[in-house]
């Protein structure tokens, strides 16, 4: 009997773990190419994801059915795909993102218009079809001695460890298409840019003048986008950088023989894209008068109050206290009356003590925190502020003592003069 109970508990735990695992749909140019990206796919699976690998034309794919999404994340390694099987189209993928899910896509110089349009919807403008990134100074020579100036050894990774890990001494091998993002974009981050000596060019056309798109000057090789609903998208200009060949490559850059950082960078970026790193969770918003523990319905002008909130950083299935000095609190009524940084105790609790302004009305606590690589925090909480009641004012004000003295002196003088004229001839 006890053995059956233990078996039932084990089965229940297994079912709960299976339900808790995130599912990832990987669409390849051809289902037979799975072995080409096996290390990348296995790396995702090792992070406790349930991975489903399909060809992009597979008619049995069901991303959504009866209003329910079958997958949590989507990987598109099919740069030439003009359409998808199973009723998946661009609008379905955009709805997938709008519902809070994540997309990682990689293209190549032969990118299709469908993939270009999808990247554009994410705020990433890919260069013209057929163009490639060239670099005549920072190119890699493969182990068989072949030099390829389109095989760029890039080292300009964004310095955000939650996105790409690092730092790395090895370069990231890249071969593919460049992209640009708007300078005013608040949601996109250039994850990998090429050296300043790199440029983009279509080899089928003569290079009669300097290229108009200098990759090192303002384009992106890998772009990460985090939507306002915290959904994440990654657009890589080179699908080969996720392949086994680039993961295991031994190349020579200049006179230095080195391995590549592709494996670590791509897997770290995938974990970030699937919200396994860089996720902030805020909870336990509370406020009270100084010296009291109970949260009141409202405050009186000039009250001394304390505001607290707990913020943790989630890394996979574990959490740790978030430590930062740049989270600000605003006490707002139409416009902020107070804007001050929150202080943290290294245990994940952020707090601030302040005096309520001498203005009554409906105020709100407002935290709007955004930091590159981390999910956004948006918290609001309304609280009314009232004026003094008629019986709460001080009866005697220190600053009014001169006026009290003048009134008393006038009364004393009046009675003195009256007494003098009434009782003296």
Question: Could you explain how this protein is built, in words?
Answer:
This protein is of the alpha+beta class and 425 residues long. It folds into three domains: 11-273, Rossmann fold (3-Layer(aba) Sandwich), CATH 3.40.50; 282-386, Macroglobulin (MG2) domain (Immunoglobulin-like), CATH 2.60.40; 394-425. It has nine helices and 29 strands. The protein has helices at residues 2-20, 38-46, 90-98, 113-121, 161-164, 215-218, 244-247, 262-273, 401-423, and strands at 22-28, 49-55, 64-65, 68-69, 73-77, 102-106, 125-126, 132-134, 139-141, 147-154, 156-157, 172-174, 179-180, 188-193, 199-201, 222-226, 232-236, 251-253, 256-258, 279-289, 299-300, 304-315, 318-321, 328-333, 335-341, 343-344, 349-355, 361-369, 377-386. The strands form seven sheets. It has an eight-stranded mixed β-sheet with strand order 2-1-5-6-17-16-14-11, with helices on both faces. The protein has a five-stranded antiparallel β-sheet with strand order 12-10-9-18-19, with no helix packed on it. Strands 20, 22, 23, 26 and 27 form a five-stranded antiparallel β-sheet that branches. The longest helix is centred in the last third of the chain and has 23 residues, at 401-423. The termini are far apart. The model is unreliable at 1-19 (pLDDT under 50).
Q: Which descriptors would you attach to this protein?
A:
eight-stranded mixed sheet, alpha+beta, 425 residues, Rossmann fold, Immunoglobulin-like
